[in-house]
Automatic annotation (TrEMBL):
Species in which this protein is naturally found: Halochromatium salexigens (Chromatium salexigens)
InterPro entries documented for this protein: QCT, Quino_amine_DH_bsu, WD40/YVTN_repeat-like_dom_sf
PANTHER family: GLUTAMINYL-PEPTIDE CYCLOTRANSFERASE
GO molecular function list: glutaminyl-peptide cyclotransferase activity
Domain of life the protein comes from: Bacteria
Name of the molecule in the record: Glutamine cyclotransferase
Length: 255
C-alpha cells in the first residue's frame, strides 16, 4: 500500500476518472479545518464528539486523539516501528486498529488509548468499520470481510461490484445509514456499498476538495471518513493533507 500502482495514476497523482454505472452525487463543503500535513492518514473515527485518527508509515504509525478545530494532536500512542498502521473503528468502549502486513490488530481502551489486546489478521489490513454486530474490513481488493468482534475471525465476505465491474483498492471505511462507505485508493470519490451483497449504490465526487492551483504530491490521496451522527455530515481528509473538511452530500449528478 505504500508503493505505487503502475498505470493507475495520472500526472496529478490521482487515478483518471472511471466510468461509473451507479449514480454520482456531489458534496458541499461546510467547513475546512487544519490537519497535520505530516499525518499519513489511514483512518478517522468520530465517537462521542471526539476525533481519533490512525496514521501509517514504518516508524511513524500511531493512534491519535485530535482536536478537530485546530488539528492539534492531544494524545498519541505509537506503534512498534515494524508495524504499519491502518484503519480504525470504535467498538463499544474500545478503538480497534489494523496493521497492514504485520498480521495483527490492536484493541485499545477508548478513554485512555491504552492497548488492551491483540488479534490476528489474515492477509493485509486496510480499512475498518462496523455495523453494530460485526467488524467490516477492507484489504485493498474488491472484497469486504465481516469479522467476529470477539476474536477477529472472518465470518463472511462480499465482492464489491459496480454493475459487472469489481471496485478494487477499497481502503478506509465508514458505516452510514446501513451502507458501507469507502475510499478507493487513488480515486477522489467515495463509494457507497450495500453490505448484504456488495452492490455499489452510488458514488460521491470529492475531486473539488484539493485546490486546482496547489500542487499535489503523489502520495497525497484522499483517505479518511468519519460521520457525525447528529447531523449526517462527513469529515474527510487525505494522506498528508493540510486540511480536514466537513462536507454535506448533496444532489446526484447522474441516475
Amino acid at each position: 500500500m505504500i508503493g505505487l500502482l503502475t498505470g493507475l495514476v495520472t500526472g496529478a497523482g490521482v487515478e483518471a476518472a472511471p466510468a461509473f454505472a451507479a449514480p454520482v452525487a456531489s458534496a458541499r463543503v461546510i467547513a475546512r479545518y487544519p490537519h497535520n500535513p505530516d499525518a499519513f492518514t489511514q483512518g478517522l473515527v468520530l465517537a462521542d464528539g471526539v476525533l481519533y485518527e490512525s496514521t501509517g508509515g514504518y516508524g511513524d504509525s500511531s493512534l491519535r486523539r485530535v482536536d478537530l478545530e485546530t488539528g492539534r494532536v492531544l494524545e498519541r500512542v505509537d506503534l512498534p516501528a515494524r508495524w504499519f498502521g491502518e484503519g480504525i473503528t470504535e467498538w463499544r468502549d474500545e478503538l480497534i486498529q489494523l496493521t497492514w502486513r504485520a498480521g495483527v490488530g490492536v484493541r485499545y481502551a477508548r478513554a485512555t488509548l491504552e492497548p488492551r489486546a491483540r488479534f490476528a489478521i489474515q492477509g493485509e489490513g486496510w480499512g475498518l468499520t462496523h455495523d453494530g454486530r460485526q467488524w467490516i474490513m477492507s484489504d485493498g481488493s474488491a472484497e469486504l470481510r465481516f469479522l467476529d468482534p470477539v476474536d477477529g475471525r472472518e465470518q463472511r465476505r462480499v465482492r464489491v461490484m459496480d454493475g459487472d465491474q469489481p471496485v478494487r483498492h477499497l481502503n478506509e471505511l465508514e458505516f452510514i445509514d446501513g451502507e458501507v462507505w469507502a475510499n478507493v485508493w487513488y480515486r477522489d470519490h467515495l463509494v457507497r456499498i450495500d453490505p448484504a451483497d456488495g452492490r455499489v449504490l452510488g458514488y460521491v465526487d470529492l475531486s473539488h476538495l484539493w485546490p486546482d492551483d496547489r500542487q499535489r504530491r503523489h502520495e497525497q490521496v484522499l483517505n479518511g471518513i468519519a460521520v457525525e451522527r447528529e447531523t449526517g455530515h462527513l469529515l474527510v481528509t487525505g494522506k498528508r493533507w493540510p486540511w480536514l473538511f466537513r462536507i454535506e452530500v448533496t444532489e446526484a449528478l447522474a441516475d
